[in-house]
Design a protein that fits this description.
This protein is α+β, with helices and mostly antiparallel strands. It has six helices and 16 strands. The longest helix is centred in the first third of the chain and has 19 residues.
Amino acid sequence: MLLCLVAISGHGGARAAEYVKQNLFSNLISHPKFISDTKSAIADAYNHTDSEFLKSENTQNRDAGSTASTAILVGDRLLVANVGDSRAVICRGGNAIAVSRDHKPDQTDERQRIEDAGGFVMWAGTWRVGGVLAVSRAFGDRLLKQYVVADPEIQEEVVDSSLEFLILASDGLWDVVTNEEAVSMTKPIEDPEQAARRLMQEAYQRGSADNITCVVVRFLDTANQDHQGGLKKNHLSSVSQGEASNSHPGGTSQSHQGGVSHGQGGANKGHQGGGASSRPLGAANSSSSSG
């Protein structure tokens, strides 16, 4: 089974977010080492997507950027890659576990990297690179590219019977909902679409000032036995996504082949203002889906 999901949050306009949405997944699956060395392929795909977007921005006067957090399921391996401040959280054995790190300019190692490159971090309502950008890694952001890199941090998890579900969401959720609260709210809701909507609505009700994108993936530990050994197997049950702005907590929903469904509403986000776009990039098992 192959599944790739992404939560994207743009700033300075929607151009970077749209470009990442259209190109990151195709750059990844076309990489010659996608199966043999998936982590290397992910890193290359992130940086290639970033460099190609920057080339396309030569005629633009206004800087644009985007964060992206991806979850890639290859067989029984779940690889989470992150650039920026979206976040992936899993529920394993009933516990909330963050499997990505938010990239903020005030983190010791991020600040050191920025300063070593000749940049600076200062307080301007929040900690910002050059007093401008509230994340330390992102796609695009041409004028700050020397300091704001698109190198992903990648973490791998084994998909086994203890893995219950994954929450992949933008900072519009995590600004107002803790990892533990998100997992606690999701646990009793079997339908991942309803779980994603529940999380979105909670963030909206708590006054999240950012756009809210949420993907919920549930895993099933089936009792199906094969002809050889009768081993339990883990299967993806379904995927749900919701996206909302702070003025629109919901959206429409639709179903696709391949066990993928999503709900999507409007979005308007940015660290300095702008737009956002996020959706499942694609899924494939016995059939394929492109969202």
